[in-house]
Amino acid sequence: MRTSPNTIPGFILLVTVGVLSAAYSAQYIGGLRPCILCLYSRIPWFIAGGLMLVTILMHFSGPGRRGILLLTGLVMLAGTGISVYHVGVEQGYFQPPAACSAQDIPANLEQLKALLGTAAAPRCDEIPWEMYGISLAGFNVLASFAMALAAFIGIRRA
Q: How wide is the angle at C-alpha 86 spanned by C-alphas 123 and 150, nearest 5°?
């Protein structure tokens, strides 16, 4: 059975749109404020989506398509790594980056007033939502790794 050359890139693009839509819906509709690691984990999805969109629109084939799929797979493996690190921070296996847990202590009354007027950034080691014991970062590990595998499968079919 022959499939369209855009099946794998289209699938990756569709999943990318779904994942990013879910992330932004959770943020803006559900009120779940993302920590800095959550924001970093979105970057590979934007890169992968952009690469797949270019692949589909430019009708890349052969070595060009394989190269873009390889790059997409590597980007999604990097995204998997970011999410694995995030899960490790949530579980206490890794130290969170300074941006995740920095709590500035005001030195004077003016700094205290300024601090009270802003919402503190969410901590990376706190789990704001989970389902079946899996946090959003955990689901991102699974989704990112699945898209890396899809890209590598696409290389074989290109």
A: 140
Domains of the chain with bracketed CATH: 7-157 (1.20.1550.10)
pLDDT attached to residue 2: 55
DSSP, collapsed to helix, strand or coil, labels residue 104 as: coil
Between vectors from CA 66 to CA 62 and to CA 72, what angle results, nearest 5°? 150
> Which bin fits 86, alpha (ψ -120 to 50), beta or left (φ > 0)?
alpha
Averaged pLDDT in 10-residue chunks for the chain of 158 residues: 73 97 94 92 97 91 91 98 95 86 64 64 82 92 97 88
Q: Residue 136, class by beta-carbon neighbours within 10 Å (0-12 exposed, 13-18 middle, 19+ buried)?
A: buried
CA atoms of 35 and 125, how far apart (whole Å): 9
- Report the alpha-carbon distance of residue 113 to residue 144 in Å, rounded: 41
User: Which residues, 6+ apart, have CB-to-CB distance to 45 below 8 Å?
Assistant: 16, 19, 20, 79, 144
Number of Cβ within a 10 Å radius of residue 90: 22
